Fold these 4 entries.
Entry 1:
Amino acid sequence: MTGIQKTPEKNLMVFSGRTHTALAEEVAASLGTDLVPTSAYEFANGEIYVRYEESVRGCDAFVIQSHATPINEAIMEQLIMVDALKRASAKRITVVQPFYGYGRQDKKHKGREPISGRLMADLFKTAGADRLISVDLHTDQIQGFFDGPVDHLMAMPILARHVREKYGDRQLAVVSPDAGRIKVAEQWSRQLGGAPLAFIHKTRDISRPNETVANRVVGEVEGRLCVLVDDMIDTAGTITKAADAIMAEGAAGVVIAATHPIFSPPAVERMTACSAEEIIVTNTLPLAPEQHFEGLTVLSIAPLISAAIREVFEDGSVTSLFEGRA
């Protein structure tokens, strides 16, 4: 008697937490599917409940949740979603975090501090995640925190294309907000036809988060439109001080390009008042109506995320999306 022989059909299913459903819907639409109907609510004491409204057995699950404010609720909801999928017999669970929470806590600056970025990876592994997809991690070594495959996507091609199309006819320079991100600035320079590089030399008070003490521009920016690049804008103190320092050095103008618009108060006020001509971000995080202002451009990251999901689902190459550099 022969045993049962069946070739399993691959079944892609996309799930979304509640912090940024607009992005998840855009990703799902790009993949030609719908988000799986999900019930999610809080009990009276704030505990989160999640249940999927259809069977997920044997599926290739992609759970999208951007870690937006309130960040701890967003993370906990995604962990619970992963646990529910594991217990409902999903075949493979890929956690999609357009913005990886706690990514700035990736090393110890002083004694008796946590490395919360590593703790995050451990939590998702324990919950049942097999794979992680994220966009522009704060530092590359976070990829090594997760015990499994990590697809580290880069928003730079999307941002650089916008800069090239809008400002390509002007003399450009690429400016890194600190010496540590000069490698990223070098990639930007290649994208912008070999534009010269500069960086901001700054001193940071490690006892006061989000604050820098001094800015000095190292490099030739005079007479050029400077593209100031960073991975995130939180309170916007660092980036707006840098923009003003660049203008003080005789630059023709400043354009700020960053992936993650955290925009914690008083970011909007600072950016509205600063000397930048345009501030370009992606929609890895949701923005409230009051966080939009004149001069802000938001580009969609959905095509990049959906392309990565498709490559993972079809056992293709995510690296091929970035000319072999991812």
Entry 2:
Amino acid sequence: MDDFLAHLDNAGVRRAPIEQWPREIRAEIERSWESIFDRNNVSKSSYWQATVHELRAVDVVDAVRIV
């Protein structure tokens, strides 16, 4: 994580919205999200907690109810 924050600092975008990040840095962070949203990584005994500032309906590609 420290390396990633250093990338943001070096690019001068640490406090900037993700839309303003250079393409290669944005791609790096977006790749890391893939495992979070992969339902194959969730079992009945898994506990997940997250906070997002904004999640747009157009960005949702699938939804699964976990009971």
Entry 3:
Amino acid sequence: MNSTTEQAPAPPEARRVPDPAGVTVRGSGPKKRKRSNVPKQSFRARLRRDKQMLLMMLPGVAFLLLFFYIPILGNVIAFQDYQPYLGIGDSLWVGWQNFVDLFGNPDFIHAFWNTLYLAAWQLVFLFPVPLVLALIVDSLISTRVRRTFQSIAYLPHFLSWVLVIAFFQQMLGGAGFVNNVLRDWGMEPIPFLTNPETFPVLVVVQMIWKDAGWAMIIFLAALASIDASLYEAAAADGAGRWRRMWHITLPGLRPVIVLLLILRIGDILSVGFEQFILQRDAVGAGAAEVLDTFTYYTGVVGGGWSSGAAAGLAKGIVSALLIYGANKLAHRFGEDGIFAQRVR
């Protein structure tokens, strides 16, 4: 036997494991964290500290309350036979009858499917354009050229739809610039603005010209947040421009793309009111009738206040369900979406 006596190893519960936070704990159980030495402020102290920021928020909060949240209470007329001279309190309650009549109305069904058809065109052809523009702007080396391109692309966003439609009429109308050139060349004029079959293409072109430049701001901000050292390391390894874009740029933009896609899907039933009502007479109600114009002509022009409110409420509920479903689908693919999934 050896003269030295070997010590038995200490039991697991007696071992001391260093904690990264600087606290030594025993065993493999939950680690203790350092308590913060900063004293917890009372509500009154935090209110006094953030008084200026809260005052700056008041106009925006008041705007949202007056024009968004309080009007939601008016949706109660969707369940009434609302008469303006009687008011909400004295109008007759009819329950779900307005919704039954609405979904049995062929005009509403036509407006609903036409909205989905036009929204699909916008989603497929309009959504990728701001991303492509942001990639083009980000690849420009000259700062002067980049700023000039951005200014030109931003400008149409600040024009109203009345001016945009007037501009397209001057360019593509029957007496517009393009058709006058075609007449000078001995060719027949093309009905760009009055052809119901090509109306979806016209709508998408108008929206790209007006809003694509403004929408690319979000993608430019996301591009600026990507670490430049990743591009340098990839270039040092021999990766070309396309490989850097595929393996660095697009993965870095993926959370923003998913977020904007979810918001766009949730807003898919709002394809635009002013744009369609200004061109409804030119192409006909069969091509330009959407849910927004149907609600306006049924509720405001036709006096069917309850039917219009029922159509608007149904549209809002469907949009909320689309956002919820798209966000759940994003969680399935490992993205946060609009809000992160709760970890249990």
Entry 4:
Amino acid sequence: MENYNSPKIFLRHFFIFYIKVAVIHTLTYIVFGLLFSNLFDYTSVYDDPIIINFMRGFESPLTVIGPFLQPIRAIFIAIALFPIRRIIASKLGWLIVWLIFICIGVIAAPISAPSSIEGIIYTQIPIKFHIISFPEVFIQTLAFSLILWVAEIIPHSEKEFSNREFLVKIFLSVIYTMFGIFLTSVCGIIIMNFLELNYHDAKLDRGTISYLSTISILTIIISYSFANKVYKNKLWLLLTIPLILIIYIVFPYGYNYIFDTVYNNNMALIPYSLSAVLMAIIYCLIFVLFYGKLKNRHKKTEEVYREDNSNKDHNEVKVIEINPDDDRTEEGDIKVIELTPENDDSDKK
């Protein structure tokens, strides 16, 4: 049984919890950031004379790399939520986490932040900005709380949840995602050269980096979620591979079409399709063949370990002392009982 007071065990559990928080937070941050920034036209909102001195513009380098910095922010979120992780896994755990975010982190924030009571009282930011900022924070924190609740409550409902298996799947999912980032970058280079696009017209902006980050996080979630399923039954590939095709064909093409980027061209479907097919093949190699071998090896190791422990318990001699302090032996008084695998009868002394 694990000793939860051990620093090594504590750090391992915290690291696993942090990985969950970082992935969920970054995903919801990017998805709802993209949605609301286009829905409420944040670009024009940030051009306000007061706001422009308060918020960085969309062209700022820090704004562009903002999605990639969210895992750093997630460290502090994980530190705050880790002590109540057992509460998170309860029936209303999602509601507790969400109320903490909304009540303490937003409305009653201890600093004069947008959409907070202190911000409305002590800053000169227009009330319109406070109102526009609140729906994104409201829904993003709700989505984060619900997904984290599901991620925490499922392992508690499973009898055989392995921390080591979790880390192996996360590691392989990240490796798989790196292939996706590489192939997506190659697609962009192919499209730029084929359409003879100007590099400055095709430069990365906040929107492009955000949707690429979304693709990466979705790849991690799908590859992790279906790893055990495709290992046990190859028919799950009939669902997994179409999802991969959607991520690497429909998602980028749809984004470029909706927001009318320089990559909005039907010819772009050719590199997208090739990338998606390669990702499907790589998925089969990593999670069907390689992960399957690791799983089988780990399973055999556990079986050998259990068998050794079973034999050890079977050969043990158990001694039960009934009256160890009494040196006198009287008739009918049982002092020591020895039980062995060969003889289960009781000897009276």
